[in-house]
Structure formats: structure tokens, C-alpha cells
Description:
Layout: E1 4-8, H1 21-33, E2 38-41, H2 53-67, E3 73-76, H3 82-94, E4 99-103, H4 112-125, E5 129-134, H5 136-139, H6 145-151, E6 157-162, H7 167-177, E7 182-185, H8 191-196, E8 201-204, H9 211-222, H10 226-233, H11 237-242, H12 250-258, H13 275-287
Parallel strand pairs: 1-2, 1-8, 2-3, 3-4, 4-5, 5-6, 6-7, 7-8
Amino acid sequence: MFHGSMVALATPMNEDGSLAEAALEALVEFHVDNGTDAIVAVGTTGESATLDVREHCQVVRQVVEFAKGRVPVIAGTGANSTSEAIELTRLAMQSGADACLLVTPYYNKPTQEGLYRHFKAVADAVPIAQILYNVPGRTAVDLLPETVERLSSISNIIGLKEATGDVQRARDVLGLCGDRLDLYSGDDPTSRDFMLAGGRGIISVTANVAPRAMHEMCKAALAGDPAAAEAAEAPVRGLHQALFVESNPIPVKWALHEMGLIPPGIRLPLTPLSEHLREPLREALLAAHIPLSSSHS
């Protein structure tokens, strides 16, 4: 159902931290024009942790409206409270999202049984298609392949975004779940190998700034053409590292502002990109043939 380059969309904000609606509409057009295969609205890259429920729903609703059915919209609806995750997932379905992406509950460190019951409760409560999201580096909990296998028997749990960067983990999950679940990389640097090992795409940070290259790389990898995938990815490989020199989405929001696509806003506790990291990121963008706004270059 969902495949290829799926952007983990940054949420545009004005300098005062308020949502920037016109910039959001322009970003959606940018992705449609450049071949992005699906848009993830208000995932963790979209600063979901600092948007309130009203804002969260507003961004999802607007992305659905701006996409006009030309590209699928997946709403980030994870939370470390099961009841909140259910509420966000229900609201996303009502807003017209095609699926939801649910990060593992962070900070409270549930057991594997707790993770199973959490995701099962959300899936039972809301019939929309749901993609699980495992990112232990940010959440302090790891959704193990055996737990994923248990969850894969629930009909509306359709996929897993696996952000460990461990390609062997992808093979393990595929071995256990077969075609009951689509696997998506959540780690740009290893995503090509991940897809060549059987993954169906990536939910990508790099695609925010290089959507066409990521689309072409995914298309080649999904067609089983390693040489073409490598060639498509070559110009942007440096960005996979450069966009993580500080906590995501700090660098990618700064990069999008440099490209003239969004205002400079980001919400505390995140802060704008540190001064000494700006020139190296600018150089990585230029090396990837990404045009920068003349007012910022």
C-alpha cells in the first residue's frame, strides 16, 4: 500500500514558534512535484512532542487538504500514553489520513508485553491502517522482532518503521512475519541496503531536502537494481550524516530555511542549529546540488 520514499515532514513554524500554514502548503507541493511517494505529517521529525492536540490535528488535516489525494498521507499519532495515542489516531482518521505511524511509548520503558498490549489497544480501537515505529535511540525501548511477529497478526497493523539501522534486524523481522507486514527503514544511511534486503521503502529525513534523489534511489532499490540505487543516492550520501549533526529536526529545519522553503521557527526545548555547524551543512547541501536561497547563501 505504501512504498518508496516517504518524507518525515518537518513542520514549518514562524520565528515565534507558531505554525506557518502557507509554508506547509508550499512544502506539500514541493514533495508532490519531486516524486515523494508518501508524506508523514507530524511524526517525530514534525516536532509532534511539542504540538498540542489541536495543532497536531490541524497539521494533519491541512496536509491531507493540500495533498488533494495526489500522494498518501500518514499521520504520526504515537504517544507514551495509550489513551492519548488512541485519541490522536482516531482524530487522524477523522482528518482523512490514509494511515497512522505510532512510535513506541517513550520514557516509561514498557516491557515487550506492554508494547504488545499498547499497539493492540490502538489497533483494536481505531480501524485505520497502522505502522509501528521502533527507534530505540530516541525512546529508550526496543520493539523486538518476536513482539512485531505477534502484532503482525492484527489485520490493520500493516507495517514497521525500523530505525535501528540494523539491516540484519530487517531480515529477522521479514523471516518471522513474511508478507503480513511491510518493512520501512527509518535510517537514511542504511536505507538502500535495507530495501535491497526486502524493505518496501524509507520514512526519510533526507527526503525533506532531496526528495527527487531519494525517490529515484528507492525506485531503483525496490526494482532490485543496486547499481542504479547507488548512483541515485551518491550525491546525497553526505547529507545522511550532515542532517544529524545535532538532534533531528534541528539541522533539517535549518537546511529547509536555507533553501528558502520555510521560516526559521523551531520550538523549545529544541534550538536553532549551532553557528559552527552551519557552514559544513551548507557545503553538504551544495555538494548534493541543492539550490540555496540567495538571501541565505
